[in-house]
Design goal:
This protein has 140 residues and is α/β, with parallel strands linked by helices. It has a domain at 9-52 and 134-140. Helix content is 49%, strand content 20%. It has a five-stranded parallel beta sheet, with helices on both faces. β1, α1 and β2 form a beta-alpha-beta unit. α3 (90-100) crosses α5. The protein is globular and about 50 Å long. The two termini are 22 Å apart.
């Protein structure tokens, strides 16, 4: 195993997945990459006055902050990681990045929602397990 991708969204489950991926990377001598996906947003008609470029810049800034915090937390444990900001539908974009970056494993956190919540809200981890061409580690 040479490369591990950990998806982080700032939630505790995603940070837990990043820490576990970092431990694995250290033990296996693999490179660790942290990724955050900026998902496309649907804007209600009444927000037409909000410049979309401003919203996109805010999302990009938020992504960079999430990655910066996650990387800093890992550095405290002696783990170095590169970072990657992605754009698109979360599961599909992560699956594409796993293939494009030639990673050997992708780690994601799971919030542990029940079946009904998954149906209503969706689950990036669940979708990723089904579509990703690389092994997926789901961490709770």
């Amino acid at each position: 195993m040479k490369r591990i991708l950990a998806a982080v969204d700032g939630s505790e489950p995603s940070l837990h997945a990043a820490r576990l991926a970092g431990d694995l990377a250290t033990k296996l001598g693999a490179q660790l990459m942290l990724a955050h996906v900026c998902v496309p947003m649907v804007y209600p008609a009444e927000t037409a006055w909000v410049p979309i470029a401003d919203v996109e810049r805010a999302a990009e800034s938020h992504a960079e902050e999430v990655l910066k915090r996650a990387a800093a937390e890992l550095r405290k444990q002696g783990i170095e990681a590169s970072t990657l900001v992605l754009h698109g539908a979360a599961a599909e974009t992560l699956a594409d990045a796993a293939k494009a970056e030639d990673v050997d494993l992708i780690a994601v956190g799971s919030r542990g929602r029940g079946a009904v919540a998954r149906v209503l809200l969706g689950s990036v981890a669940d979708r990723l397990v089904h579509i990703c061409p690389k092994p997926v580690l789901v961490v709770r």
